Amino acid sequence: MIPLSETLARVRPSPTVAATQRARELAVEGRDVISLSAGEPDFDTPRHVKDAAIAALEAGKTKYTAPDGIPELKAAVAAKFRRENGLDYAPSEITVGTGGKQVLYNALMATLNPGDEVVIPAPYWVSYPDIVRLAGAEPVIVETSLEAGFKLTPAALERAITPRTRWFLFNSPSNPSGAGYSRAELAALTDVLMRHPQVLVLSDDIYEHIAYDGFQFVTPAQVEPGLRDRTLTMNGVSKAYAMTGWRIGYAGGPEELIAAMRKIQSQSTTCPCSLSQWAAVAALEGPQDFIDEAGAAFRRRRDLVVERLDAIAGIDCPVPEGAFYVYPSIAALIGRTTAGGRRIACDEDFTDALLEEQGVAAVFGAAFGLSPHFRVSFATSDAELEEACARIAAFVEGLR
C-alpha cells in the first residue's frame, strides 16, 4: 500500500463534485439525467472576454507571469474594488489565484496552525471546513436555521469566538442557501468582530453580482472600515461572467497577508494561467451588460423553482436573496419510503434515491453542514428546471 499523509485523513472529497460526477456517469450509461448539482452558470463566457484571450494568445502572452497576477489584472481588480465596494487597495495588497478556491486555500495555509479555530456559519460551501482541516486547524461550525433566513446572529457569533479563533469565514450571498445579509445585519456582525481584534475576516463575495428583489450587496470591510487591515475580501470572475473553467479568483487584503499568500502560490501553481488573466482584465474592464442579462434569467429561474418546489407537500423552499441555489427543507419527508423501496433516513438518502429513481442530481444538506435539506442549482435552462421539478414532485408523491 502507498503510505498516505495523515492530513489527508482529515478531509473528504468534495460532495458537490462527487454528485456532478455521478450524474455524468449515469448519463454515459444512457440514463436520462438532469443535473442540478453543479455550481456554475450555463451561459457562455461573453464574446469580448473570449476575444481578449484569443488576442493574448496571438500576441504570444503565453509565458509565466508574476506569481499572483499581471500588473494589468491587479489594476483592474483595484479599480473594481474602488468602483463597486468603496475599498482602496494598492497593487501590493491584491492577489490573483487559480480560482477563488486557491485564494481561500492560500490565505488559510499561510495563517493557520494546529489548535487554531475558524468560525464558519452553516450551511456553508462544502470546501470551507476541509481547507481549514488541511491547514491543520479546526472548523467551528455555527448552525443557522431556515426560520432565521439561514443567517448568523451576532449572539451566536459572539459565543463561537474563543482565544483560539483565528478567522471568521463569511459568505454573502451564500452557497448553498442564497441568503444575503443587509447592511444592518452585517453591521451587527462587524460590531462583534471589532471587539475581538485577534480574529481575521475572510469575506467570500463570489456571488456579489447575482442578487434579486433590490438586495443591496455590501462586504464587511466596506461596512466597518475598522476591519480593513484584518480582512481578506475575496471575489472572482467565475460566477458573474460565466468563467468557471478559466480559473481566476482575486482578493484584496493586508500587504503582509498578501505577501505570505504569494509565497505559497509560488510553490504550488507558480501563477494563474496567463491567457485567463488577460480574459479577466477584459471581464472587469469591459462592458458589464452580461451581468444584468444573466441576472434577469436567474431571477426568472429562481421564481420558477421556488414556486414548483414549495408547492410540493413535505418540501419547504425559502426564497433566496442571491446566488443561484435554493436550499429546501425536507424535514417532513424523513422516515418515509420511496416507491423503489428505499427508506429516507437522512437527506443523503433522499438525494441518492432521487437520482437513482428519477434521474435528478442534487446535493444533500449534510454536505453543507445543515440537515435535513438539499441544494438545487437553478443555473440551467428553464425547460430542464421545469422537468426536474416535475420529477421531484413525482418522487415525493411516491413516498409512503
Automatic annotation (TrEMBL):
Enzyme category, top tier: transferase
Example of a GO biological process term: amino acid metabolic process
Record EC number: 2.6.1.-
GO MF term (any one): pyridoxal phosphate binding
Gene3D superfamilies referenced in this protein's UniProt entry, alphabetically: Aspartate Aminotransferase, domain 1, Type I PLP-dependent aspartate aminotransferase-like (Major domain)
Residue stretches making up the Aminotransferase class I/classII large domain: 32-392
Catalytic activity: L-aspartate + 2-oxoglutarate = oxaloacetate + L-glutamate
Keywords per UniProt: Aminotransferase, Pyridoxal phosphate, Transferase
Required cofactor names: pyridoxal 5'-phosphate
Pfam families tied to this protein: Aminotran_1_2 (PF00155)
InterPro entries for this protein: Aminotransferase_I/II_large, AspAT/PAT-like, NHTrfase_class1_PyrdxlP-BS, PyrdxlP-dep_Trfase, PyrdxlP-dep_Trfase_major, PyrdxlP-dep_Trfase_small
CDD domains in UniProt: AAT_like
Family of this protein: Belongs to the class-I pyridoxal-phosphate-dependent aminotransferase family.
Subunit structure, interactors included: Homodimer.
Protein name (Swiss-Prot/TrEMBL): Aminotransferase
Native organism: Rhodosalinus halophilus
